[in-house]
Amino acid sequence: MKKAAFVLLVSVLMFFCFAGSAFAETALDKSVNDLLGVKYKYGGTTDKGFDCSGFTMYVYQSFGIELPHQSKAQAEKGSFVDKNELRKGDLVFFNTDGKGISHVGIYLGDGEFVHSASNKGVVKNKLSESYYEKRYVTARRILDDETFAKLAEEISQ
């Protein structure tokens, strides 16, 4: 019994020792996490309210990258990325109105993306959710390798 308790204690201590790097926040994570819950606003481009492309434009602008304020126009920027090659910071595009690209979000890794949804504001969702999986169109890589490295760096605690 004592041996089992000791093994459990060591396991818990090891988890917390290594958890710092596993749960460290990057500059991109911090930027989007600070905006979670901001309400949806048609045409919105500020932290008082965003539409989808206003949100991506705002986040990228905070890192010195200019994007147009329309998801279709953003889909023409950067370079094509295959869905199975996505990395943090890539833009993901959806057809939500049946007329082509009409929605955009920022890929966060592990199948998750953040976006401004018209019914919920800025939220995180999984690409594998039925609604988004059926409407996924393409992805674009806006960040060059050097910028990506800076945004993906862990923030010092």
Number of helices: 6
Q: Mind summarizing the main beta sheet?
A: 6 strands, antiparallel
Q: In the CATH classification, which architecture applies?
A: Alpha-Beta Complex
Mean pLDDT: 86
H and E string = HHEEHHEEEEEHEH
CATH topology: endopeptidase fold (from Nostoc punctiforme)
Describe what this molecule looks like in 3D.
The protein is α+β, with helices and mostly antiparallel strands and 157 residues long. The chain has a six-stranded antiparallel sheet. It has a two-stranded antiparallel sheet with strand order 1-2. The chain is built from six helices and eight strands; from the N terminus they run H-H-E-E-H-H-E-E-E-E-E-H-E-H. It has one domain: endopeptidase domain like (from Nostoc punctiforme) (endopeptidase fold (from Nostoc punctiforme), Alpha-Beta Complex), CATH 3.90.1720. The relative contact order is 0.18. The protein has helices at 2-22, 27-33, 52-61, 71-74, 130-135, 145-152, and strands at residues 45-46, 49-50, 79-80, 91-94, 103-109, 112-117, 121-126, 136-141.
Task: List the keywords.
endopeptidase fold (from Nostoc punctiforme), alpha+beta, six-stranded antiparallel β-sheet, 36% helix, 22% strand, 8 strands, globular
Brief summary of the model shown:
36% of the residues lie in helices and 22% in strands. It has 157 residues and is of the alpha+beta class. The chain has a single domain, classed as endopeptidase fold (from Nostoc punctiforme).
Helix-strand blueprint:
Elements: H1 2-22, H2 27-33, E1 45-46, E2 49-50, H3 52-61, H4 71-74, E3 79-80, E4 91-94, E5 103-109, E6 112-117, E7 121-126, H5 130-135, E8 136-141, H6 145-152
Antiparallel strand pairs: 1-2, 3-8, 4-5, 4-8, 5-6, 6-7
